[in-house]
Each structure stands twice: as C-alpha cells, then as structure tokens.
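Q: Give me the 3D complex with zinc ion.
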Amino acid sequence: METISHRNVDERRKRVRRLKKLIVAVVIVTLLLLTVCCLLLFFKIEKLESRVDTIVAKKNNIEEFTSEEKVASSIVYSADTKTKEQWEGKDSEKLTKEEELDKTIKEKKVYLTFDDGPGQYTDELLDVLAEYDIKATFFVIGKSDEHSIKMYKRIVKEGHTLAMHSYTHKYDKIYESVKMFDEDFNKLSDLLYEATGERPKYYRFPGGSSNTVSNLPMTNFISYLNKKGITYFDWNVINGDATGKKLSSEQMINSVMSGIRQHDTSIVLMHDMVSKNTTVKSLPALIEKLQKEDYVILPITKYTKAIQHVKAESVK
Ligand SMILES: [Zn+2]
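A: Here is the predicted complex, encoded as structure tokens.
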C-alpha cells in the first residue's frame, strides 16, 4: 500500500516538474519571439522614416520651384530630346540626401567643420560621425604622407565635404602675394584631386577672411577666389578649441549650444589637430544634444548659406 502511494507521489512530482519545464520553455520562446518582432518592427520603422524624409524633401523641392526656374528649365527641356519627367528624374537623382535637406530646410541648420587636419584624430572623428550617420566638413591642409592621403580618401568616400584650408597654413607665405597664394592653392587642389579624383570647391582662409595677419589686404585673395568660382566659408560659432585655454568637453558643448541658438545657419569652427583630443571626446555628446533639440547637422554643399566675415560680393 505504502509503495503504491509512494509511486503516486513520485509520479505527481515528475508531472509537476515536467509542467514547470514546459512553462519555462513557453515563457522563453515567447520572450524570444517578442524580441525578434520588436527588432523587425524597429528596422521597418527606421526604413519608413528615411523614406518619409526623402518624400518630404522631394515635395518641398517641387514646391520651391519658382516660376523663373520653371521658365529656365523649360528652355532646357525643349533644347533637349529628353522628356520633362526624365529630366526631373535625372535631376533629383543627382542630389544627395544631404543636398536635398540643405536646399529645403531653412532653419536650425548646423555645419560642423574641422580645420587643420588630417591628423592623429581624423580616423576617430570619422568613426564617431559614421556611428551617428552625420556628415561634416573638413577644411584640410596639404600633407603627402600615406596616412593623410588615406584620410582625404576616407573623408570623400564617407560622404563628407573635403574643403581647402591652404597647403602650408603659413600666414607669412600664403598671404605674401597673390602669386604665392595661387601657388599654394594649386598645390593643395592638385594633391586632393590626385588623392580623391575630385577638385574641392570650398575654401577657408587660415585666420578667416577678416584676419589681420595678412601682408596684403584680404580683398586681394577674396577677389582671386571669386574669379575662380570658389566659395569661402568663415564661421559664426566656435567650440573654443583654439582659444589657447584648455576647455573641458562640457565647456566646448556649452559654447556651441549657446552659439547656435542665435542663428538659423550655424557654421561651427572646430579643429582636427594633435592637441585637440577634447574636441573628439566631446563630439558624441555634442551630436546627441543637437539632435535632441532638433537641429539638422549637414555638410557644406552648394546650397549652404556662405557665412563670411568679409562678404564675397563686397569685393570685385
Ligand atoms: Zn587653421
């Protein structure tokens, strides 16, 4: 009798254990399924969001077409055998996502610019930008070593704007005469063309267009760039990494945030140099703060408002 009841108890225990195992298995499978579903939904949302952005940008582009542009483009259509649709298709294909945004968005635009590279931190800067899928602008100087050539290439390949900041960055040399400026300009332009296959279209004067260190009046060099069809960019916001003081990441970010609140278009001056590791370290937090406050971070394109201390059109 006793053995039978023992057997019964044993069997019941086994059944309970089996049931427990089953419940645990069901819970684990359910959790796994839920996780997979969440991940799938997340990717789907990401994809849809980027599609919505493109559609909105395209729609705004079409609305922005002025009647004058329409007249101009209709002349192009009639001169060409392609249909209007084909032209528009071709035209919209040519613009990158960033160019479309730069063309359509009118406020809260921030352009992160890095001067004086390539250097020790260029790779790290590019890694951070890639991580956040942000495009920036690099105003580079001339360096022909293997690492620098690799950096010029990487900047272009990853969709950033590669722009010029003089070959030597030596004020007394480049600003000595227009001839010297021209030599320096061509040397850098050729170097970057050889490295990347593209001629840069934008320039930043060492010291800015309003510097007081130049031997000749800066109007000489502005006139030179105007004739070449090169747009130069100064800045209206700084992170303070070239002020000579050792600033913390937080101070740099505060400097940028208080600057950008005063402009619709903010061109932020930063540096890509050996001594500027705080700039790299502060970048993730800066990007996150900007994105949280709905600022649009863009690389300089042909649609960017030229921020110039001395206006190009004021010089013949
Ligand atoms: Zn510089």
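A quick observation: The chain has two domains: 1-94, 101-314.
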